[in-house]
Amino acid sequence: MLALPILAITFDLDDTLWAIDPVIERAEQRMHAWLAEHYPRLPERYSVTALRTLRDDMLGLRPDLAHDLSALRLESLAMAAQRCGYGRDVAEGAFGVMLQARNEVELFADVLPVLSELSGRLTLGGLTNGNADIALVGLDGLLRFCTSAREVGVAKPHPGIFEAASSAAGAPPNQVLHVGDDPQRDVHGARAAGMRTVWVNRNGQTWPGGPQADAEISDLFGLLDLLEQGLV
């Protein structure tokens, strides 16, 4: 039986459309510098690394926030602020500085050409566990929606977030293609929800095991080739 045509494509954001590690590192450094200027007791006690560790520890204290990276970061900053004799407003200000920097990303060179090519003929959307804002990163003109773990209440690879994205796209899961870099969160999760999948393997990694994606590409230009040849 012939596969039904693809009506929509969802894209993971971090490490699929841009490299996330340098973005987060820069955002944390900028937040730390802002704290040093305005609320010095906090950065004197907590280095950038210590604040990151505190955020990770918060997950153990608040597993209910596992799907909400913004809330985890904010609550950990609030704890640090309280320990240093500051109010929650300090944490909120610091997080605002970090969030702004977190959305200053450098798109991979293939992103704009490929999304521009596809946006006129398919519904494109974002699908993320993170807290990037597609308007702030400049993709709101190409991605019609962005489904986040924070708004849905569950994170990838839970099928629920993929089902929510399919609903946002206005297409059944078996006519949605998900494109992402993470074998577990993106490929396995999307497959479990009934989507077709493409693994973006920019760094030449070996497949770690488990059900494979329908296709593998080294950059998004390969996605255009797959669609043109009807391979997904």
Which terms would index this structure?
six-stranded parallel β-sheet, Haloacid dehalogenase, HAD-like_sf, alpha/beta, 232 residues, Four Helix Bundle (Hemerythrin (Met), subunit A), Rossmann fold, hydrolase activity, elongated, hydrolase
Tally of individual domains: 2
CATH topology of the largest domain: Rossmann fold
Strand order of the largest sheet: 3-2-1-4-5-6
Order of helices and strands: EHHHHHHEEHHEHEEH
The top-level CATH class of the largest domain is Alpha Beta
Number of strands: 6
Alpha carbon gap, first and last residue: 14 Å
Helical content stands at: 40-55%
**Approximate strand percentage:** 5-15%
CATH 2nd-level architecture of the largest domain: 3-Layer(aba) Sandwich
Q: Summarize the biggest pleated sheet.
A: 6 strands, parallel
Uncertain regions spanning at least 5 consecutive residues: none
The radius of gyration computed from the alpha-carbon positions, rounded to a whole number of angstroms, is 19 Å
Average pLDDT for all residues: 96
How many helices? 10
The 3D shape can be described as elongated
Question: How would you classify the quaternary structure?
Answer: single chain
CATH superfamily label of the largest domain = HAD superfamily/HAD-like
Find the structural class using helix and strand composition.
alpha/beta
Protein name: Haloacid dehalogenase
Keywords: Hydrolase
GO molecular function, one term: hydrolase activity
Pfam families: Hydrolase
